[in-house]
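Dear Dr. H.,

I hope your travels went smoothly. While you were away I took the liberty of generating a structure for the chain from your last submission, since the lab meeting agenda had it listed for discussion. I wanted you to have the full record in hand beforehand rather than looking at slides cold. The sequence, exactly as received, is reproduced here:
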Amino acid sequence: IHALIFYQGLPRIFLTLNPADIHSPVALFFAGVKLDLDNVQAEQLIDTYRRAEIIASYPAATAKFFHTLISNILDTMIIGGVLGPVKAYFGTVESQGRGSLHLHLLIWLDIKIKPTDMKEK
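The corresponding predicted structure, in token form, is as follows:
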């Protein structure tokens, strides 16, 4: 991070992505629950406690869900250009007390406006 800040300056965006795996049909599907992901109905989803048990029992499925979701988000935001031109980004993954993963992300945008200019607007 120090080298990025030295070379690129301060990041423009600090973002935390914390997918709610126990509420995700995709995470449950990766854990082996039989769901039609193209047509998930509320009555197909089991109660929250049972979903949490399933997610906790299949950490590899939860990691696959996290990786799939985060990869798609980064592809859209960073590579897809939703934020405009990006000079660099750096992220670190952590686990919460219950084992779910989340991502802290620093993003350096390739824009000429200074933070003080943004404050004035």
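Two observations you may find useful: The radius of gyration is 18 Å. Residues 2-120 form one domain.

With kind regards,
E. W.
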